[in-house]
Amino acid sequence: MKFYIVVAALFLIFGVSAQSSLKGKIKDEQGQPIYGVNIHISELQKGTTSNENGGFILKNIKEGTFKVTFSMVGFKTEVRKIAFTQNNTVEILQTLKEDSESLSEVVVSASRRSEYLSEIPASITVVNQKQLADLSNSTTNINEILEFTVPGLAVSTGTFSNWGQTLRGRSLLVMIDGVPQSTPLRNGQLGIKSVSPNDISRVEVIKGATSIFGNGGNGGFINYITKKPNSGKKIEGTTNIWGTSNLTKTKDALGFGAYQSLRGKIDKFNYYVSGSYEETGNKYDADGKVILPTYGLDNTRIYTALAKLEYEISDRQKISIGGNLYNSLQDTPFIPVLGSFEVYNENGDYTLTPGYGMEGSVEGQEPTGSKLYNGNLKYDLNSIFDGTTDFTADVYYQKTKNIFFYSDKFENGGQSVINAEKYGLRPNFNTTLTPNESTEISLTYGLDLLKDKTNQGLLDGRLWVPNIDMFSWAQYIQSTVKFNDEWVLKAGLRYDDMNLTIDDYNTLPYSPLGDGNFNPSVAVEGGKLGFDNLAFNAGVRYIKHQEFIPYVSYSQGFSIADLGSVLRSAKADSVEDIQLEPAVTKNYEFGFLSKFKNFRLEAVGYYSVSNLGTGVAFDENINSFVPSKKPQNIYGGEIAIDYTAFDSKLKVGTSYSYVEGLTHDVGDENNLTYLGGDVIAAPKLTAYVTWIPTNKISTSLRMTNLGDRNRFNPYLDANDNYTFRHTQFPVEGYTLLNWSMNYKLQENISVSLAVNNLLNEYYLPARSQWAAPLRTFTGTGEGTNAKLSVLYNF
């Protein structure tokens, strides 16, 4: 309560007596509201931004005629002369035209308010709707789209799982419209592939530890922002139909998909509904061999649905309800033949033989994959407290069911399943204050309430991870102070309080290495655990010159190690004896952004430390996964360059990401060892060339190059054979080329053709290499494959 009293007092301190006001709405050329437009009167040093409905109000304007500037990256700036009289409100409707040469973005969710990317003292990547549409012509796998577009994100595993697809060497939190999709209490690491790219309007990725959101995001977060029900018509929509095939070998390799969306406006109601269905065929590598089906993308049925309904109560209020479904299930006619490796000497010379699929089935095995359900009820109230504040509150529900492949690592074999269910409530305030002509203060503050219930069992009824019932609450405040349109200072606090209740349970006999050495069952007494953490972030950015916009920042993150993995391998008689401790990450970052008319350059360097590992480690002595007790030091850098020429007919760009990580025993800081591939990714280089020779044709060539990472020495096992440890296996790089072309038959009909792995490269994805000691996940990547699509807008 004291927190809100303090905020209310700020309103009184900085309040200004009412004079004239400017009120209005801002739309694009299609009549859709534009969120985040900057409205500014330079002579008075006053400004504001438009809300989600495109509405805005600017108060306390003195009498006179002034130039009002409407600007937003991606749109051409408009300037209007408007006359103001004493105690009068001027109402306007402003239309902005798109600017195809703009190389900047506006980010919405990174700090729970609308901000310019160039004014945020942090590294953030935004994948816009145009990029998503172009890359979706090649693939519907969002993991591969983000692999190419997000510097700092590890390459895709080539499977349904994103285990090892870390962000700057840390775990990440996945959200859809701000609703968490990850299962941090028992991290199945399937969260990235949780929505159809056709339903996404933008992807926002904030990198590094963050105190803006809670548990699970030590490396940052990915937020999928789905399309909004914005339309100027009663009904309009999009139809997309596509077919896919492997070109190396086409036997039963054909796949197909269809997507349909409708949206419109009827009186005060806005709606958006969509659905899609996709089937994939067999997947073959460059030699025409069936790809390992474990976590595979072959023979998969994918169903998606999204619905949103908004009701405009007034110009300042609206209520919306929505939900989405993502159901991806693999029912393959193949069973895995596991890979193998042999190390010849102490120098680490080795051969790695990948696994593959052979025809067959496991009796009783159910399809593997994910089922996700989301529901959300949201209320927006704008321009309260004398027009200084916008208020948003939402209630959400999320349910996840992740079904994994059959494994003989269980005694008598079995399939495991993670069940997670979340309920949340989030009231949030955004307040903008202008204490003087040269200073603007923005405050974002509120509460996060979350109830999460998670377990992991086998489909035959055996319980592997007991019921974990968590209730957490957090209060936060983020502040942004802008001085003279030159400096932006950002700082914030977040306090998390987490309480967990764990049921009594018995551990399952399990052999992590699949060697038949099953750990004995242990009866574990449940109990209550509690964690709390105060996280802080601060940063400063100099924004006066677009040609050089430097920043420096510090942020903290907070997470619990994969609790489910720890509990299922427990050796103690009580959960209170397991001695769990949260991992706190501190991230130091510096970088700059340079923007010119047709050129954009961004460079970032970072260093992060954590008191513990942000995951679990395999202990060979007890044949179990245990919390990583070793501190971690991770550092790296990223650079991205984009250039357009010839009136945007030619676009070229490249990015490079490097990350490295070290760990040590507590108290032995001088004895450093490298972190494994499940944490640290090999260097990644991407490049693209897009050419638009006519208004009807566009073509693009994209390259993804993975570098080598060989940091580990072999050791002699109990049989005096040289081998490598779990996740500490060398990675050899590879290069992939993807090509696509789009042809516009009519203004609203287009056809596209894409060929992936254009040169039919034979390669093993990074995870297939560093996870080789487990033998389960070592498979090849897909050979040359194609996608043909037809898109119709009406």
* DSSP summary, beta strand count: 47
Give the N-to-C terminal Cα separation. Answer: 51 Å
Protein structure class: mainly beta
What shape does the CA trace take?
A: globular
Biggest pleated-sheet summary:
22 strands, antiparallel, barrel
Q: Mean of residue pLDDT?
A: 89
Helix content: under 10%
Rg estimate, integer Å: 27 Å
**Number of helices, where a helix is a run of at least 4 consecutive DSSP H or I residues:** 5
The percent range for strand residues is over 45%
Q: Low-confidence parts lasting 5 or more residues at pLDDT below 50?
A: 1-18
What would you note in describing this structure?
This protein has 794 residues and is mainly β. It is 5% helix and 52% strand. The strands form ten sheets. The protein has a 22-stranded antiparallel barrel. The model is unreliable at 1-18 (pLDDT under 50).
Quick overview of this protein structure:
It is built from five helices and 47 strands. It is mainly β and 794 residues long.
Topology of this structure?
Blueprint lengths: L1 H13 L5 E8 L10 E4 L4 E4 L5 E7 L2 E8 L6 E7 L4 E7 L10 E2 L7 E2 L7 E5 H8 L5 H8 L23 E4 L2 E2 L19 E8 L12 E7 L9 E11 L8 E12 L2 E11 L20 E13 L4 E14 L3 E4 L2 E4 L6 E4 L2 E4 L8 E17 L4 E19 L6 E23 L2 E20 L4 E21 L3 E16 L2 E2 L16 E2 L2 E16 L6 E11 L3 H6 L14 E13 L3 E12 L5 E4 L4 E4 L4 E14 L4 E14 L9 E2 L9 E8 L5 E10 L8 E2 L5 E2 L10 E13 L2 E8 L9 H5 L14 E9 L1
Parallel strand pairs: 1-7, 11-14
Antiparallel strand pairs: 1-4, 2-3, 2-5, 5-6, 8-9, 10-13, 11-12, 13-14, 15-16, 15-47, 16-17, 17-18, 18-19, 19-24, 20-23, 21-22, 24-25, 25-26, 26-27, 27-28, 28-29, 29-32, 30-31, 32-33, 33-34, 34-35, 35-38, 36-37, 38-39, 39-40, 39-41, 41-42, 42-45, 43-44, 45-46, 46-47
